[in-house]
Amino acid sequence: MSGISYRNRTVDVLFILGSIVGVLSIFVFFSYNPTAAVNTAPVRVQVGGGNIGNPLFGYLPENVEINAGGTVLWYTRPLVPGEPHTVTFIFDNNTMINGFLVAVQRVYYPAIIDSNDITKIYLPNAHVTITGNEKYINSGWMFPGGSVPGTSSTFSVTFEKPGTYNYSCLLHPWMVGKVVVHA
Ligand SMILES: [Cu+2]
Questions:
Q1: CA 127 to ligand 1 center in whole angstroms
Q2: Are strands 127-130 and 154-159 parallel, antiparallel or unpaired?
Q3: Based on the structure, what is the number of domains in the chain?
Q4: How many Å lie between the centroid of ligand 1 and the Cα of residue 67?
Q5: CA 62 / ligand 1 centre spacing (Å)
Q6: Tell me: the pLDDT tens digits for 101-149?
Q7: Residues 151, 84: contact at Cβ < 8 Å?
Q8: How many whole angstroms from 2 Cα to the centroid of ligand 1?
Q9: Which of 40, 70, 114, 147 is 20 to 30 A from 128, comparing alpha carbons?
């Protein structure tokens, strides 16, 4: 009898352990929230593109929406016509500049002018985090596949502050896009 009793206890313990593992699995399964992961994966926007006969002067998609803390990644496609573009946020018109001035570092390279008028220049393919108080944020020249030395094939920005952020291309001012950052 004691043998049976012992075996029953073992079965009981195994059953309880199994239940705990089962409940934990269900908990882990439901606590994995795919929508929470959206903010960690950058929202991708294609810059320019098209083909030789029909180059694209635009951003695809033109408007994106993210949550505060989220990131937008702009990229150029390789092997498309070599038309340079920029992703440029101008929040203070005093920072406006002619985009064709390659000699100006903050045009050609990724750059930020902060609220204290301090200009920071970044290496190509920069990732920057912005507070929303900057005066100017620029990707630098973006070329398909980063095929020209010193240019970028990607530029990414993490937005900390909710708001609407309009941007354009310094080289083709009619190229415009928008990032809406939700709280
Ligand atoms: Cu452009």
A1: 20
A2: parallel
A3: 2
A4: 26
A5: 13
A6: 666 899 999 999 999 999 999 999 999 999 999 999 999 999 987 778 8
A7: yes
A8: 83
A9: 147
